[in-house]
Design goal:
- The radius of gyration is 19 Å and the shape is globular.
- The chain has a single domain, classed as Purple Acid Phosphatase, chain A, domain 2, CATH 3.60.21.
- β8, α7 and β9 form a beta-alpha-beta unit.
- It is built from seven helices and 14 strands.
- The longest helix has 34 residues.
- It is an alpha/beta fold.
Length: 288
């Protein structure tokens, strides 16, 4: 297909989608999309069965949260509620897959974030990566300071061993943001032992196209917001760059399982429609 044909198709899709979205919002959906759905929370549970998961990690739980986009619409108070919901799952590992603040250099409540995130508890650690909004608006240093001070291990083109009390391990790797960061795939994954169960945190889900050249068993991503606004029988009104091939839920490509979390906040417009904010709980299962 030529670029011209692709561009026309995308233009028509967005044009028709915009008309449909406007019609839905104008006929009663506005209140729901603006005030109700963004405040809902879906808890998605997934079992991850893999022969490289050590027996001693069987039953361990990982909670993923993503894309809070702290702003006037997603407040510190809402973040506190999310923290309580995460801790209620009694996770062994917590991962944050990017986009903490919508515009870091304009956000007035930065100093209130750390005391909230410090309340998250996970015996095998808390891990985070950069999203595009974490780098944008001169936010790189702000975000790094927040996550480090909150007890997260901030992974920027690196991999770490997660070792349990049986001295068995899995690996969690984090690639820098594909849009505004400086991703280095070889540095991140080149030295990882292929026999070790490896989880890649990558903000943009289409990073899978790069990750497939390495031994990645599970990739956890966000970024897409599940489309944020979806039109019935039509799908997402818009998916951002690097979330065009994979935008929501679970996929299996070659030897890699990918999960794309819908995130918690909103960006550009404070609406969600048919894309409920999400926490994901993964339970690891070995072949014991």
């Amino acid at each position: 297909m030529s670029n011209l044909q692709f561009s026309r198709r995308e233009f028509l899709k967005r044009f028709v989608g915009s008309i449909l979205a406007g019609a839905i919002l104008a006929t009663g959906g506005y209140g729901y999309a603006r005030f109700i759905e963004p405040k809902r929370l879906s808890l998605t549970r997934q079992s991850i069965l893999h022969n490289k998961i050590p027996n001693s990690f069987n039953g361990k739980k990982i909670v993923q949260f993503s894309d809070t986009h702290l702003n006037e619409f997603f407040t510190i108070e809402r973040l506190e509620e999310i923290v309580q919901s995460i801790n209620a799952q009694k996770p062994d590992i917590i991962v944050f897959t990017g986009d903490l603040i919508d515009e870091a250099n304009r956000y007035s409540r930065v100093e209130e974030i750390v005391p909230v995130l410090q309340k998250l508890t996970a015996p095998l650690g808390k891990y985070a990566i950069f999203g595009n909004h974490d780098h944008g608006g001169y936010g790189t240093d702000i975000y790094a300071e927040i996550m480090n001070s909150s007890g997260f291990t901030l992974l920027q083109n690196q991999a770490v061993d997660v070792v349990n009390d049986q001295q068995e391990k899995i690996v969690i790797a984090g690639i820098d943001d594909l849009i505004l960061g400086r991703p280095d795939w070889e540095r991140t994954l080149g030295a990882v032992n292929s026999d070790t169960f490896t989880i890649l945190l990558a903000h943009e889900p289409d990073a899978l196209h790069f990750a497939k050249h390495f031994q990645v068993h599970l990739q956890l991503s966000g970024h897409s917001h599940g489309g944020q606004i979806k039109i019935p029988f039509f799908g997402p009104l818009y998916t951002p760059p690097y979330a065009e091939d994979f935008h929501e839920g679970i996929y299996e490509v070659d030897q890699t399982i990918l999960y794309v979390n819908r995130g918690l906040g909103t960006t550009r417009l404070p609406y969600r429609f048919l894309s409920v904010p999400e926490l994901t709980v993964f339970t690891l299962q070995s072949h014991e």
